Amino acid sequence: MAESSPDEEAVYIGDIITMDAAAPAAEALVTHGAWITFVGGRDAALTRASPHATIVELTGEQALLPGFIDGHGHIGLVVLFERSVDLTPKPVGSISSIGDLQAALGAAISEGPPENSWLIGSNYDDALMNEHRHPTRDDLDAVTTECPVTVVHASGHLAVCNSAALATCGISASTPNPEGGVIRRRPESDEPNGVLEEHAWMELAAPFLPRPIPREGIADLGAAQEKYAAQGFTTVQEGFTDSAAMQLLATANEMGKLFVDVVAYPS
């Protein structure tokens, strides 16, 4: 917690809240800074609230639930893609075709050179685009060949690189598929078509992506935590933590910048 427990009020959780329809539901809670100091009936909340406390009444469709626990996630990827081009498909995002994807990337380029020379897009989903296929290096080359471009699938298990990105990563017709990964090829050729599956993406390309400088990393981690917290998650996971992500988490923890619990599994 960013704040210590208020001295003038004991931290008290009132009525037991269950998912049993016959059990009484919480009517209000009292907060003091970052702390919930009371949960229970409305009258009791009014009695217990100090002059500096805030009373939140749970009326209508409002309800109070325990913090959610992320059972499988990668907050490190959320941090890494915080400054990327959002390629989320409709209805959540705006991308419904490869043309939309190209337009979004092109708009980002028109705003200025990509940071650290790479242009990164995230959260595209072939299953929700009109063409029902992954973009290829040719689709991305049509946007630009001047800088490396990679777009990452919504699953995080696959990505697509343009020709400049493939060259930067040293991926060519002579590059064998790594164990647990596939470099998709052009028809009747060994030449990569840009689509990298699983370990071909994670081992051959992902290490080349630029990492934010420490100051930006702390800020992006804060923004990532806000996204989780806004959906009710108080415990989040980094299920494949590389050394850079582990160092960022450790530094943030030392600085008191972690306001959610993070479960990290080192890769």
Could you give a short description of this structure?
With 267 residues, this protein is an alpha/beta fold. 27% of the residues lie in helices and 23% in strands. Strands 5-6-7-8-10-9 form a six-stranded mixed beta sheet.
Can you give a write-up of this model?
- The chain has 267 residues and is of the alpha/beta class.
- The protein has three domains: 1-65, no CATH class; 84-208, Roll (Diaminopimelate Epimerase, Chain A, domain 1); 214-266.
- The protein has eight helices and twelve strands.
- The protein has helices at residues 42-48, 75-80, 98-110, 137-141, 163-169, 199-204, 214-230, 243-254, and strands spanning 28-32, 35-40, 54-57, 68-69, 85-86, 119-124, 149-153, 158-161, 181-185, 192-198, 233-241, 261-266.
- A six-stranded mixed sheet has the order 5-6-7-8-10-9.
- Helix 3 links the parallel strand 5 and strand 6.
- Helix 7 (214-230) crosses helix 8.
- The protein is elongated and about 75 Å long.
- The model is unreliable at 1-5 and 7-18 (pLDDT under 50).
